Design the sequence.
């Protein structure tokens, strides 16, 4: 280990709070070049939820309470991942909350259900809120998967993300 390398010991205590959102308290000790620096009992962190499906109909009755809890717990932002054409309108709807980053894409589980107009529908969503593409990918563990169809849809979405310089959430 070089003298300017840093060793950190972190103890993270998770406590349950409203709607199972976690509050994180970090006790951190850093050692650098032989010095020990206690950073304090609580460090302010910006927390991001990188993947959820808040658009799920089962969460709709609880959405206001969830969003209130998220604001109270200091969650800076969250990515709400669309899975198919049927849920993209609801992803757009939850994007009304300032913490929500909408992501639209065809999940490999639902590729067989896509309509002939799926690409146009995806483009319309991205024109309304050009944030991210996802959740997309390949999955050989589902029953009766069709890998060529999954690959076609996955590659088209990756190309679209590259053309528009958008981040991608991969399954």
Sequence:
């Amino acid at each position: 280990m070089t003298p300017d390398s840093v060793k950190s010991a972190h103890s993270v205590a998770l406590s349950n709070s409203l709607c199972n959102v976690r509050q994180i308290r970090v006790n951190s000790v850093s050692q650098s070049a032989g010095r020990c620096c206690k950073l304090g009992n609580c460090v302010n962190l910006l927390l991001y939820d990188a993947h959820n499906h808040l658009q799920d109909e089962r969460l709709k009755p609880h959405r206001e309470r969830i969003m209130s809890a998220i604001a109270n717990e200091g969650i800076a932002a969250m990515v709400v991942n669309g899975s198919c054409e049927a849920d993209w309108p609801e992803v757009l709807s939850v994007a009304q909350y300032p913490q929500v980053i909408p992501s639209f894409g065809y999940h490999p589980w639902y590729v067989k259900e896509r309509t002939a107009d799926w690409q146009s529908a995806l483009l319309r969503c991205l024109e309304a809120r050009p944030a991210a593409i996802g959740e997309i990918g390949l999955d050989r563990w589902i029953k009766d998967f069709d890998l060529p169809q999954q690959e076609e849809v996955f590659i088209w979405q990756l190309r679209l993300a590259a053309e528009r310089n958008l981040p991608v959430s991969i399954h």
Notes: The first strand starts at residue 6 and ends at 16. Confidence is low (pLDDT under 50) at residues 1-39. The radius of gyration is 20 Å. The first helix runs from residue 63 to 73.
